[in-house]
Write a structure and sequence with these properties.
By secondary structure, this protein is mainly alpha-helical. It has one domain: Arp2/3 complex 21 kDa subunit ARPC3 (Orthogonal Bundle), CATH 1.10.1760. α1 packs parallel to α3, α4 runs antiparallel to α5 and α5 packs antiparallel against α7.
Length: 169
């Protein structure tokens, strides 16, 4: 059920109007990998979210780099399964944003959008900095929202009498 909710949420947020690279995809990949019951599902959920939405939004030259970076972000999220401390989530969000920036901008450069030279590559990365800022900010905010809401809900449920009844049966 959590997998379906994450996919639907991610697809929804990709369809609503937003600033470039402001979306919860990386946070969903991190969160899903940390909380979904198995590794396979953790990798499938964000990839399914991207494929479903890209089929409607349109496929592009760097789709393999975009989808690949989302899978890499899920792998980073698997490391959060063991320890969901705030510092780990913050580090995972930062590293995920860097991975996305490096991989997708390399894809833009390799696709010929910039001269296929070292100068073209550096120009591509410099041009991508505003998108990186947006992606990092949204990944931090959405990660805080997803991980925070889940942990607060779990804590609340554990502290209620209803949970005590459920856990004793």
């Amino acid at each position: 059920m959590l997998a379906i909710i994450l996919i639907m949420t991610g697809v929804f947020f990709r369809f609503i109007p937003h600033m470039p690279n402001i979306n919860p995809v990386a946070a969903i990949a991190l969160f899903g990998a940390a909380y979904l019951p198995n590794k396979r599902l953790a990798l499938i959920v964000p990839l399914a979210l991207m494929i479903l939405s890209d089929l409607f939004l349109g496929l592009h030259d760097i789709v393999i780099f975009t989808w690949g970076s989302v899978v890499l972000i899920s792998l980073i999220g698997l490391s959060l399964k063991r320890s969901k401390k705030i510092t780990n989530i913050l580090a995972g969000s930062l590293i995920s944003s860097l991975v996305f920036f490096i991989v997708t901008n390399f894809g833009v450069w390799a696709s010929g959008w910039y001269p296929l030279t070292l100068s073209g590559l550096s120009t591509c990365y410099i041009a991508g900095i505003p998108f990186f800022r947006n992606f990092l900010a949204s990944t931090l905010v959405y990660s805080a929202a997803l991980f925070g809401a889940y942990e607060l809900s779990a804590k609340f449920i554990r502290n209620t009498k209803f949970a005590a009844v459920l856990l004793t049966r």
